[in-house]
Amino acid sequence: MSMRFIKRIPGAAEIIKQIPLPGHIKEIKKEKDHQIKKIFENKDDRFLLIIGPCSADNEDSVCEYISRLAKIQEKVQDRIFIIPRIYTNKPRTTGEGYKGMVHQPDPSKEPDLCEGIKAIRRMHIRSLSEFHMPAADEMLYPENYSYLSDVLGYIAVGARSVENQQHRLTVSGVEMPVGMKNPTGGDLTVMLNSIKAAQSSHAFLYNGWQVETTGNTLAHAILRGAVDSYGRNIPNYHYEDLIFTASEYEKHQLAHPSIIVDTNHANSMKCYYEQPRIAREILMSRKYDTALKKMIKGLMIESYLVEGRQEIGENIYGKSITDACLGWESTERLICYIAENV
Ligand SMILES: O=C[C@H](O)[C@H](O)COP(=O)(O)O
Ligand SMILES: C=C(OP(=O)(O)O)C(=O)O
């Protein structure tokens, strides 16, 4: 075997015992989970914003960003529900590059998965304890879900993972809303099939156990645009795309049909500064069509303290080291615009 076993990583029970979620925060988390669930069940018509850096690379800058979100959340709470993006696992197109805090708690140092798992759990708990905001993360490694299952508020399965059986089956045993992204090639059937699989019950092998799941009726769609076989970006947030997705969704007869639109990635053609324009267009489409208004539950936006991106080592506090993000001033303006126009 050409694999060197470096360090045994403690199991979830051990890590949770070392870094527990405080009792009084568990109650707050339960109430927030209930509110998020109601949005997907059409029992609360607030608009969701899943918003934050492309990758959560530094606990202090991420928490400073969330503290700013928390202040705005108070102002817009009757119209918008904000879920911070704390993305600690990064899928990479070629396997090269920063793979997230779970691999490297300090991006300038060598990988340390054991410290990484502790660091991401601490950061998620800080978002809950200091700001009462359960955050979103990507399920990149389904087996790692058990380290964060009690602290997350929302999960996305990424464009590169959505056709994978272990992801789909694991989501079927998750008790919170999980967004299944369209794959990088854009095939909506793959996304809708993944929702079907996640909404059904399954028996399978998970972390050394035979497990049985109930199915997750809150699994739903995330549209992130696509890249065609010539490498061209094909957005899927325009009115006609949304109408088509909604009608395909209806045909599949899935529970709680819901769409989140990702305003970055192939939708913005990785031009982060286009996100406010894209958000405005989606709000207009929602206003124009009542079925879309019901189905489009929110947006996923990439934003951080400082706009753009940097290379690791430039050390600009609060600037993305993966995909470029909106900066704070534009983010604040955008959230206010959404609150007034949703
Ligand atoms: O969201 C971030 C990136 O788009 C994703 O992780 C892929 O990144 P890469 O194509 O730069 O590897
Ligand atoms: C990696 C991400 O997205 P996608 O899977 O759509 O590329 C992300 O949202 O950070």
Automatic annotation (TrEMBL):
Gene3D superfamilies: Aldolase class I. GO terms for cellular component: cytoplasm. It is an enzyme of class 2 (transferase). Pfam families: DAHP_synth_1 (PF00793). GO terms for biological process: amino acid biosynthetic process; aromatic amino acid family biosynthetic process; chorismate biosynthetic process. Keywords: Amino-acid biosynthesis, Aromatic amino acid biosynthesis, Transferase. Pathway: Metabolic intermediate biosynthesis; chorismate biosynthesis; chorismate from D-erythrose 4-phosphate and phosphoenolpyruvate: step 1/7. InterPro entries: Aldolase_TIM (IPR013785), DAHP1/KDSA (IPR006218), DAHP_synth_1 (IPR006219). It catalyses: D-erythrose 4-phosphate + phosphoenolpyruvate + H2O = 7-phospho-2-dehydro-3-deoxy-D-arabino-heptonate + phosphate. Its EC number is 2.5.1.54. One of its GO terms (molecular function) is 3-deoxy-7-phosphoheptulonate synthase activity. Residues 35-333 form the DAHP synthetase I/KDSA domain. The keyword Lipoprotein does not apply. Stereospecific condensation of phosphoenolpyruvate (PEP) and D-erythrose-4-phosphate (E4P) giving rise to 3-deoxy-D-arabino-heptulosonate-7-phosphate (DAHP). Belongs to the class-I DAHP synthase family. This is Phospho-2-dehydro-3-deoxyheptonate aldolase.
